[in-house]
Specification:
single chain, elongated
Length: 191
């Protein structure tokens, strides 16, 4: 596979990875935080769907904006360095940027399906949250592992890094959910 084609495939995967990572981390926070605060599966489902889809849209817009700005920098660099016509092939095209942004949205929307599934099937909030955490942890590890493979870095380390980020998100969401639960119940205070 030639260098330009490999670069273009990595570019598309970047959008997918961004959507999956952001979607999973956000949804994990919603599931844990809302689940702890309300102990209501319906509220978790509604919050997860609305928050997940909204987040996917926002992520794809942010990805598009970032890649478009990078394209502008690439063009400026090309002009200043008086690059050859061959160098143009390394500049992101509009269709690549749009394609990556669309894939980012689709990946983010897809990422909410599996972690929310236990809430549709089990309906017990605690069991559903634990199931969602396990599903999300596996998805994050596999994503990190694959990114390590693409980037030719330590795959296990990359997998565990993504898993760690998911765990940190869950801890923050748990604390916030607990604070909100106490507030809702009128107990006030954090502890």
């Amino acid at each position: 596979m030639d260098r330009v084609r490999k670069m273009r495939i990595k570019e598309l995967f970047q959008g997918i990875a961004m959507g999956l990572m952001d979607g999973l981390i956000t949804l994990l926070g919603i599931i844990v935080g809302v689940g702890v605060a309300t102990n209501d599966a319906k509220v978790v489902i509604i919050s997860g769907l609305v928050g997940g889809i909204s987040n996917s849209f926002g992520t794809s817009i942010g990805f598009y904006t970032s890649e478009n700005a990078e394209r502008g920098q690439q063009i400026e660099f090309y002009k200043k360095s008086k690059g050859t016509r061959k160098d143009l092939q390394y500049i992101h095209s509009h269709s690549e940027i749009i394609g990556s942004a669309v894939l980012s949205f689709i990946a983010g929307a897809f990422a909410i399906v599996f972690p929310l599934l236990p809430f549709f099937l089990l309906y017990d909030v605690l069991t559903s949250m634990i199931s969602s955490l396990i599903i999300s942890a596996m998805m994050l590890f596999v994503l990190g592992y694959y990114i390590g493979k693409i980037n030719e870095t330590d795959r296990l380390r990359s997998g565990f890094k993504y898993l760690f980020l998911g765990i940190m998100s869950s801890i923050v969401a748990f604390i916030l959910g607990e604070v909100l639960r106490r507030f809702i119940e009128g107990k006030g205070g954090i502890f």
